[in-house]
């Protein structure tokens, strides 16, 4: 049950289980693992038992505390647009030390990618008093050059709307926007 209570911990547990299995379970659970994607394994859960308390009766019950938690909902699904290609990640090269940093898109923010604020790379300064082992110091530069968008993914938005409840005092059905990526698109 801990798998469903904390999304981050659940993701780590699934990733550790796949690593121990030698990766062969990746094909059975969610498809091949993309080694360039640090977010890890993709898992699709189906037929989750209702006794776990994950289901909501109405989309209006979903609040901020549901962020980062598994939630089950049912409703009418409508596509909001065509499948699009979106950037999964963008590479930036530090103008001072040449270190390449990959920044991943924020899917929840229309695949926005922010320029890094500070370079995590290291510079070699032989004989420096403040040097780390190997004579290296953190670069820390904030100047970057974009190397282009070579990491793409499929992206599509859907609207999930509560099933209409008929009756005299029935409220208007709630809806939420859902973002699909990669193999869930289509």
The biggest beta sheet, please?
6 strands, antiparallel
Mean pLDDT: 73
Order of helices and strands: HHHEEEEEEEE
The gross shape turns out to be elongated
Q: Unreliable runs, pLDDT <50, ≥5 residues?
A: 24-38, 127-135
- What is the count of structural domains? 2
- Structural class, by secondary structure, is alpha+beta
Organism: Alexandrium monilatum
Domain MCM OB: 61-185
GO molecular function, one term: hydrolase activity
Pfam families: MCM_OB
What does this structure look like?
By secondary structure, the chain is of the alpha+beta class. The protein folds into 2 domains: 1-74, no CATH class; 89-152, no CATH class. The protein has 3 helices and 8 strands. It has helices at 2-5, 7-20, 25-29, and strands spanning 76-79, 84-94, 100-104, 122-124, 136-138, 144-146, 151-161, 175-181. The protein is elongated and about 65 Å long. It starts with a helix and ends in a 5-residue tail after the last strand.
